[in-house]
Amino acid sequence: MIYIYILNYCSWVVDVEGFDTSLPEDEIKEALTNQFWLCGGIVKVFLDDKDPKTDVLNSHATIVMVGDDAAENVLELNGSVLGGRKLVVKAKRFPGT
C-alpha cells in the first residue's frame, strides 16, 4: 500500500545516521519524525535491526518522504543535532518515482 501511495508523488529515501540509540525505538522514531516533519510528508520511518552480538540498535534509520523539495530540505539538516548527537543525512529518489 505504501508503494502505491508514494508512486503518485515525488518521493525520497532519506538515510539518517548518528542519533542516540539508548532510547526505546518508538521514542527514536518520534524524535526523527519531529526533526524531519517540516521537510516534507513523512510516509514511514524505519530503524535498522539491533546488532545481534550486542543487542543494541544500530544508529541508522531510513525515512520515506514525499514532496518536491523534501530532499533539498532534509539535506539542510545534515550536521544538525538530535539528542546531543550530530546527524548525518543523505537523500536519494525513491526507485520508480
TrEMBL record:
<protein>
    <submittedName>
        <fullName>Nucleolin 2-like</fullName>
    </submittedName>
</protein>
<dbReference type="InterPro" id="IPR012677">
    <property type="entry name" value="Nucleotide-bd_a/b_plait_sf"/>
</dbReference>
<dbReference type="InterPro" id="IPR035979">
    <property type="entry name" value="RBD_domain_sf"/>
</dbReference>
